[in-house]
Structures are given as C-alpha cells and as structure tokens.
Specification:
about 0% strand; about 70 residues; mainly alpha
Length: about 70
Amino acid sequence: MALAAIAIPQSALAYIGPGVGLGAIAVALSLVVGFALLIAGLVWFPLKRALKRRRTTTADVAGQDGRSE
C-alpha cells in the first residue's frame, strides 16, 4: 500500500516566491555559462598555444632560407 502511495504523483501545493525563483534561474544560468566557459578555456588556450608555436616555427624556418653566411 505504501509503495502505491509513493508511486502515484500528487501535487506538492508549494509556492516559490519571486526571489527564490529568480535566484534559482540565476544559479541555473550561471552553471550553464560556467560550464561553457570551462569547455572554451580547455579548448581555446591549448589551441592558441599550438597556433603560436606553429607560427614561431614557421617564422624560424622562413628566416633560415638556406643561405650560409
């Protein structure tokens, strides 16, 4: 009998005030934005470092055009 009472959904008759509701929305949005920035940081900074390293090695090779002095 208790299992049947738990399994049947019933309304909670609860009220969320505007302050708590806006706070919950702000927390949810900050979690989403924080996760997006985390992923962007994990992708962007290593990619930026790799591109800089590639650019410097290309410039080094271009500076050594084969002439011996």
